Amino acid sequence: MKIFLSILAVAVVLLLVGGCTAIQVRNGLITKDEMVKEQWSQVDTQLVRRADLIPNLVNTVKGYAAHESEIFTAVAQARSALIGAQGPAAKAEAAGAVNGALGRLLAIGERYPDLKADQSFIRLQDELAGTENRIAVARGRYNTTVREYNASIRRFPGSFFAPGLGLERAEYFEVPEGKQVADPPEVKF
């Protein structure tokens, strides 16, 4: 009888430890999934902030260089593509197009000394530079969180629970190959 009770006690302890471990792993995966979503929200917020700055920058430049309509059209199209893009891969591609268009727009300032000295233009360039830094930081945090999450759902025991929770690998926020901007927007004062 003592042996039976000992075996039963060990089995109960093992079941409790296993159950607690399963709950901990499951909850950890759910937490990491939510962290990926939160970090993506931070990236998206900064991309929207940059998109909101673009019309003001374009309008300031238009006041000095109204005949540069091709660049204004390219900036507007790139901004629209960024706003309409869904998911990290599409946002990354659209962000690359915005970077290229903004680089050309900011280059106009070099050709127009009055524009280069305009306080609104200087302030908008400063805000844009700050936003670019925020995007870089948010992208780095997001990619780190994605790496940790993806590893968690691929390693055991996370790989055992991930399919049942509907968890799939998250996308990194990276500019697609061949779409990198050779000359990113440069802000000069």
Quick overview of this protein structure:
The chain is mainly alpha-helical and 189 residues long. It is 81% helix and 0% strand.
Textual characterization of the structure:
With 189 residues, the protein is mainly alpha-helical. It has one domain (31-165): de novo design (two linked rop proteins) (Up-down Bundle). Helix content is 81%, strand content 0%. It has helices at residues 2-64, 69-84, 87-111, 113-117, 119-154, 158-165. Helix 1 (2-64) runs antiparallel to helix 2, helix 1 (2-64) packs parallel to helix 3 and helix 1 (2-64) runs antiparallel to helix 5 (119-154). The chain is rod-shaped. The protein starts with a helix and ends in a 24-residue tail after the last helix.
